[in-house]
Structures are given as structure tokens and as C-alpha cells.
Amino acid sequence: MTTQDLTAVEAGAAGNPAAPAPGARQVWRRLRAQRAAVAGTAVIALLVLVALAAPLLSAIEGQNTTAYHPELVDSASGGVPLGSFGGISGDHWLGVEPGTGRDMFSRLVHGAQISLAVALGATLVQILVGVGTGLAAGLGNRFVDNLLSRVTDVMITMPALVFAIALMAVVPDSFPRPLLLALIIGFVAWGSISKLVRAQVLSLKSLDYVAASRLAGSGTWRIARRELLPSLVAPVITYAALLIPANMVIESGLSFLGIGVKPPTPSWGQMLSSANTWYEADPAYVLLPAAMLFISVLAFTVLADGIRTALDPRAASRLRIGTGRKREEAAS
Amino acid sequence: MIRFLLRRTVSAAVVLLVLAVVLYAVFYLAPGDPAQLSCGPKCSPAQLVQIREQMGLNDSVYVQFWHFLQGIVTGHDYSTGTGTVHCSAPCFGQSYRTGELVSDILVAKLPATASLAIGAMVLWLLLGIGTGVLSALRRGRPTERLLTGLTLAGTATPVFIIGILLLMLFCSVLQWLPYPSYVPFTDDPQQWAWNLLLPWLALALVESAKYARLTRSSMLETLAEDHIRTFRAYGVSERAIIGRHALRAALTPVIALSALDLGTMFGGALLTESLFNVPGLGQKLVQSVELKDLPVVVGIVLVMGFAVVIANAAADVLYALADRRVVLA
Q1: Using a CB-CB distance cutoff of 8 angstroms, which residues of chain B are in contact with residue A276?
Q2: Beta carbons of B260 and B283 less than 8 angstroms apart
Q3: How far is B81 from chain A (nearest CA, A)?
Q4: Looking at the DSSP assignment, which residues form a beta bridge with residue B94?
Q5: pLDDT digits over B121-134, tens only?
Q6: Rg (CA), chain A
Q7: Which residues of B touch A6 (CB under 8 A)?
Q8: ipTM of the assembly?
Q9: Angle, CA of B133, B139 and B143, to the nearest 5°
Q10: Distances (CA, A) of A5 to A14, A195, B151
């Protein structure tokens, strides 16, 4: 085992390819047996709902994300919201932004849209590029494998945030930002998934059933699609589940540095960045987006943990499914 | 061993070359005229022509890239109109904005980044290993559940959230610390440490979660092995078993991982540096990207890549030194 594999092992992604992956129903049962994973799923469902219904929620509150309310902030103190906890009131359920007086509730729920859309979009790009290059490297000839492996090395070597920053700077401002963020995060952080797929393909390739399929006359493409892809589903899902919260953190980091979505589009990272000068005068302005981001990332992390346990053939005994005591021991 | 080092050097050079090509290509395609950036807003057309000539912007992009690579290996002489500036061997060119040599900028920014990275690493190793060992020894008890919960929270928190919360707590609510502003070690070691305390803590709290998980799982694995049972049967004290045997074996992956992470940190903890206003490579990178200052961006990213590549090799060597079963090839 080299050190590059360490993080993959820690993520539980270096499973034994020869072991049969459990079926979908079984996975679902195992997932439900873990209390933490169920809680994570519930939070994610709520989050998705909030993101989808963001315009509706703002409309119910009667506010929007961009309207300035200078009458609600204290101009003498530089714009601290009037009232307690950042100016919470019946009109502004979570108070207003210091300085501008924009409605916090609207901005937070709309921020969920950006956060989720970018994280999921980026993960999709990572899966497509990673599985594609991984399959090609594992099945291709020596030249293809070498070339792709070197490129993958570069992608793994470079910190994703650094690469993303460099790329963000050169794209014209007219390009829609959330889409750009998803594409860039996706294209800078697919290295580890590609490496994982390549390793799986190499070990699967030597198994008898693949040889049998080849002897029966299957071409490379058919082998990839019919024999290899089904066995790759479990490890790729396990890893992709971990990528979602990681992408969420990268997006918020870029927005925090001022290179993410453009104002006035609300994003949690960007709110935290402007909150950095307000933490003394208006703590609520820091705590609200921080809590949203923390809860979202935590929920996805917990779910990823649960998925890993559910897909791990060795974990079944630890879950004690069917004994009536559905204790979540496997989260350890 | 020699074969390993040779192979590693070649592959590192390839990785860095690919990186340089990608960066150069990306920024060459970027909108904006370097001569205009370098000359400033009040620039006569005649000056612009002269600057283009000096910067070699009339050559094809391949020639420019070749000159850039040449500069890194052999150095470069720049004409500034009034005289020439010599830029010695690792030469990454000049800033478009200020005309400073990129190598000078790198040297100026490195101490802050190194201070941040090394101090944070000491702290995260202490915290991470301590937590990991404790939760492995208290398996199944409330302490372990609490620590597992805390580590999970740690892995889920972006560093700038922890950072802002620390600032709120220590600078605003408790008022124990002033708002951090970087003081070089050579000026005043005590002020240096005092001002870096919060950024160290922020990074360490986030990073240590990963180490706690790794230490814990690796400890539990070792403690379940047969030789530990044999030690117990021979009556070796529990303290010696844990301290001398289990921990040693458990630390091998931890050491390797910390070498990797230190490499990444040297690339600049961008978010931490920009939140706590530490004048390091990461902060400079963000500023240079905003200014589209190509030579500075390329220089910093190459140095970051270099650090990571070295760290990768170091991690493999450390791994082999700590665990004799690993063969370097």
C-alpha cells in the first residue's frame, strides 16, 4: 500500500472487488438500520425541499433577496441592524443583513440553491470524467494508461482550491457563475475517483468471469459496459457520496475568497466572507450562514458514512439487522 | 533506493512540466493585455510598443514559454529601459503589476506560510493522535462516543467557519487576544507565536479530525493483533503495550499522511491566510489572480506543486522507514 492509497482506505473505498455487492433493497435496509444515516437523509431531504421552494418561501415571508432596507439598520453605527439578534421581526424572520438591510431569510434559503446545485453538479462531472478516464486507463494499452495516469497524478497533486481559483480568473464574467463553479470544481477534483476506478478495473480484469466473457467474443466496450460497470457502482457511489460535502466546502471557500458566485446572488460562503468584518457588532450575521453550511456538510458526511457501511459486505454482521435491536454500531 | 529516487525525480519533473504548460496555456488564453497591465492606465501607445518589445510579447507563445522554462533553469536578464535587471537561476519572471522579480516575492512570502504550516502541524498531530488514542482506549464508552461526534463535526466544518468562531470567541467575547496581525519570527518570537495562535488552532482543529480517525482505526487494528495478545500473556504492562508497541505501529500511516498534508499547507492555506490576514503565498496567490498577474500566479502555483511532489516522495520514504515490510520501487 502506498501513501496515496491511504485516504482511499480511510474512506473505505478500497473494498475487495471480488466480494459481491449487496442488492439495492438490501442496501436500503442497511442504510435504514443506521440512525445517524437516517437523520442525515432527513436533513438533506429538508434542505432540497427548502432549496426548491426558495422563491415560494421568500414570497410567503413577503421579502426578496435584493431589496435594500436602509430604515432597518442603524446608520450611526455603520449599519448594525436595529433590534435584537440581527433585527428579527415578523417581517424579517431571521433579521436583516448589516449595512444593506437585505432580508436574511430570503438570502439563506436562496443560498441553499447555490450550495446544493453546485455541489451535486460538480459531483456529477467528477463521476463522468473520473469513471471515463479510469475505465480508459484500466482497459487501454500501455501508452493510454501511462498518459492518463500522469494527468491524473497532476490533478491529485494540485490542491483543488488553487486550481479552481486560477481557472475562475480567466473565464469571462458573462458565463453563468453557478454552472461555471460546478464545471470547474468538477474538472479539478476528479483525480481520486479516476484512480479508484482504474485500480478496480485492473483487479476485476484478471477475474475468470471477465476472461470468460472475452473468450465468448465480447469486445472491450461490451466488457466495460456489461461486466465491469456493474461492479464499479458500489465503490463509485461510496466515493461520490464523500465528494458531495467536499465540493460544498470548495464552493463556499471560493465564494468566501470572493471568486465564487457574483453578488447580488446570495451564497453562504460569500455571506460569511462579508460577515468577517461584522462578527463583533452583529454575531447573528456570522452564525446563520455558518450554521446552514455546517449542518448541510455534516448531513452529507453522515450519509456518506452510512452509505459506506451499507455497501460494505463486511459490515452486515455489525448492523444486527433483523434482531429487533437496530443499533447503529457501524457508524464507528 | 537510488532507483526509487531517480524514478521519483523524473515523474516529479513531468508533473511540474505538465502543470507549467497547463497554467501557461490557461493564462495565455485569458483576456487582458499584459503590456497594458504592466504599463498602467495612463500609457502612451509608444510606451506600449516599447514594453511589448521588452517583455517579448511579440514572439509566439511557444517561444515565450520556452524563454520562461529557460529562465527557471539558467536565469534571465531583463532590460528595464534604463538598464538591465538580472534574475538569477530559478527565475519565474517579473510581476506585470509592480515589476518585482517573482522569485523575490516567493522568498518574501514563504516565511509566513511556513510559520503557519509548521505550527499548525505540531498542534494537529498532538490533538489528532491524542484524541485518536484516547478514543481507541475508551472503546464503547461515553468518552469514545463524544470524541467520535466531535471528530465528525470537525471533518464537516470548513476552516473559515472555525476561524470566524475562534475570532468571535477570543477577540470579541472574551477579549483575550488582539485581532491577529502577522509579526515575523525574527522580529519578536513571542509576538509571532501569540499572533499565529488562532490561525494555528483553526487549521489544527479541522485537520486533527482526520488524524484522530486514522489513529483510532489503526490503533484498534494493531491492538487486535496476535502479537499484542502474546505481550499481554507474558505480563507486559498495559502502558508499555500501548506506548511502545501499539502506538508505534499505529503511527506509521499518520506520519506518512502528515508529510502529505504539510506539503499541501506549504501550498498556502489559502482560506486561513486570507481570513487571518497572514501575508503568505496563499494570500498573494488570491490577490494576484484578481489582478491577473500571470507570472506571480504561475510562480506560486509551481512552488506549491513542487512542495506537494516533494511531500509525496517524503511520505513514501517515511513509510518505508517506519514499516520495514514496505519495499520502495
Answers
A1: 164, 167, 275
A2: no
A3: 30
A4: B101
A5: 999 999 999 999 88
A6: 23
A7: 214, 253, 256-257
A8: 0.81
A9: 80
A10: 8, 9, 21
